[in-house]
C-alpha cells in the first residue's frame, strides 16, 4: 500500500475512490472498503482512499472532540489489511475547511485522484458547512464523468454500527460489544518505553507502552492479548489510564505479560483489550496496589482459562 500526504502524486490511471474519517475502521467501514475493492478489481483500476488528519471535529472544536479510536498509524494498518492500494492523507486545516463542496470535488475527486467511481457511506458530508452530500456528489459526477454509490449502514444486535457506537461500548466497559462492531477486539498499538520500574518492585513487571490516544476512549484494567513478540500471541493484564495512585497526569498503557521474561524495550506491540476487569482506582498505598494487582492477574488468568 502506498501512502501520500496531500494530492501531489495522483494515480497514473483513473481510480475507484472512497473518502471519510474512518475512525476505528469498524464493520461499517470494512463493508465499504470491501465494496471499493470489488469495483476496483472489476474495472481494473486502483482502489484509492482519502482520509483526513486531524479529524475535522478536532480542528473545529478540539476541546469537545470525541476520543479517537485509532491513531493514523493504526488506521493505515487496517487499510493495508483491507487491500487498499493508495491512501491519501488530507491535512485538515483552515484552507480545506473553507473549500466549498464544488471546489472539493473539482480539486480532490476529479483533478487530484481522477475518480471514475466513488463509493461513500450514506452519512458522508464534505465541503464548507458540510454542504456536500450524496445527491450533490452524484450531480457532480454527471458533470465531471464519474459515478457514485452510497452504502447503507451496517446494523448488528439492533444497533447501527458507527464510531460513536464503538466509543459508547468502550466507555461502558462492554468489550464484547465493541468487538462485535469492530469485527475484532479493540486494540491500541505502541512502542515499549522505559518507565519507573515500579512494577518489578511490586513483583509484576510491566511493559510501559507509549500511546498517542489522549483523551482515552476508555480506562481501567483489562485482560489483554498482545501481538508483536516472538512466539505468537501472549496473554496478560493491562492498566490503561492515568495511574492515580502514582499521581500520573498523562495516559499510559502498562501491560504485565503472563509467564514472560525478556528485554522488549523498543518493541512495537499491539494490545487487544479482550475483557474489562474493573475501573481504574486510587489506592491508599503501594501495598494495597500490589494486593489488587495480584487479584487482577488471577482474574485475567481465570478469564483466559474459561475462554
Proportion in β-strands:
25-35%
3D shape: elongated
User: How far apart lie the N and C ends?
Assistant: 35 Å
The CATH topology annotation of the largest domain reads as Rossmann fold
SS content category: alpha/beta
Name given to the CATH homologous superfamily of the largest domain: HUPs
- Report the biggest beta sheet as strand number plus sense, adding barrel if it closes: 6 strands, parallel
Strand order of the largest sheet: 1-4-3-2-5-6
Overall helicity: 25-40%
Q: How many beta-strand segments?
A: 14
Q: Give helix and strand order, one letter per element, not per position.
A: EEHEHHEHHEHEEEHHEHEEEEEH
Poorly predicted regions are none
- Counted up, domains total 2
Tally of contiguous helical segments: 10
Rg measurement, Å: 22 Å
Note down, in words, how this protein is organized:
The chain is of the alpha/beta class and 307 residues long. It has two domains: 2-156, HUPs (Rossmann fold, 3-Layer(aba) Sandwich); 185-306, Elongation Factor Tu (Ef-tu), domain 3, CATH 2.40.30. Helix content is 34%, strand content 27%. The chain is built from ten helices and 14 strands. Strands 1-4-3-2-5-6 form a six-stranded parallel sheet, with helices on both faces. It has a six-stranded antiparallel beta barrel with strand order 9-10-13-12-11-14. A hairpin with a 6-residue loop joins strand 11 and strand 12. Helix 7 runs antiparallel to helix 8. It is elongated and about 70 Å long.
